[in-house]
Automatic annotation (TrEMBL):
Gene3D superfamilies from the UniProt entry: MetI-like
Domain called ABC transmembrane type-1: residue spans: 86-274
Principal location: membrane
Keywords for the protein's UniProt record, in alphabetical order: Cell membrane, Membrane, Transmembrane, Transmembrane helix, Transport
PANTHER family per UniProt: D,D-DIPEPTIDE TRANSPORT SYSTEM PERMEASE PROTEIN DDPC-RELATED (PTHR43386:SF1), OLIGOPEPTIDE TRANSPORT SYSTEM PERMEASE PROTEIN APPC (PTHR43386)
Xref: InterPro entries: BP-dependent_transpt_permease (IPR050366), MetI-like (IPR000515), MetI-like_sf (IPR035906), OppC_N (IPR025966)
Organism field: Microbacterium capsulatum
Membrane spanning residue stretches: 21-48, 90-114, 135-161, 207-232, 252-273
Highest taxon listed in the record's lineage: Bacteria
Subcellular localization, as worded in the UniProt entry: Cell membrane
Keyword Transcription regulation belongs to the record: no
Membrane topology recorded in Swiss-Prot or TrEMBL: Multi-pass membrane protein
Name assigned to this protein: ABC transporter permease
Pfam families on file: BPD_transp_1 (PF00528), OppC_N (PF12911)
Amino acid sequence: MNLVVPSKFASKRRRPWLPRAWRTPLALVGTVIALAWIVVAILAPWIAPHDPLAQNLPRLAPPSADAIMGTDVNGRDVFSRLLVGAQTTIPLALMLVVCAMIVGTIVGAVAGYLGGWVDEVLMRITDMVMAFPTVILAMVIAASLGPSIMNAVIAGIIVAWPPYARITRSLVLGLRTQNYVIAGRLLGSSPIRSLARDVLPNIAGPVLVLASLDIGTAILLLSGLSFLGLGAQPPTPEWGTMIAAAMQNTSAWWLGLFPGLAILSIVMAFNFIGDSLRDALDPLAAREREAEAPTAVSAAAATGEVAA
């Protein structure tokens, strides 16, 4: 006997391969732009039409068929330098965020799990770092270490880890009293094993959301330090140094426009991804926002009916 399943029940079994949060227009746009820039960063040496350091083109030439984004004051192709600059900026920004996330997560987890004087000492150090404006402190550290791109990354890590420590500590404080954590300790788990096995996997979501949102901030920070002469040094292709060079030739509009658009696009892309990741890892918040939208529409419709 053949069993016929109604179409309305069959349709419920087919689930989309992407979560709802990743099927929004902003999520798709952000993912496409971010992946495109990552591919560019990997393939930059092979797809750049000119040597980014070669000074064999006309100086300050506007965009043309030979140089689609023009040339700089030294006769270098702006488009080639923009592509190779992605290979400098994006990987270093990712490394900055990953290192800051690791340091901050360890500090916050230890402080929240152990408590007592350990918590007080670590949190006061965190407060001391957060008391200074982020950019100013990064400038001071980079200037003290010496102007270079790696010193700029170190400065960024030093100023970027406290938010991770704060959010990790608050999450650990709420989880360390849960029954499964207490049961693991009673069964003989050491504090380190209990922290690594029972606590940290359950706080990964909010930490990853913060990290995804921080990638854009890291790109802005590294570009800003390079713009001020504390990061990448000429003739290294880097978006911040390219904008700094454009400030000396304001009549050549293409020198600053294209690096600025590159920074804008990659920062917005990772911000879109961070918002989508937050919705994917926190379905309750996403459902609450979706529930509020129809309510607001209904209220507006009711108001319009009353006014009519």
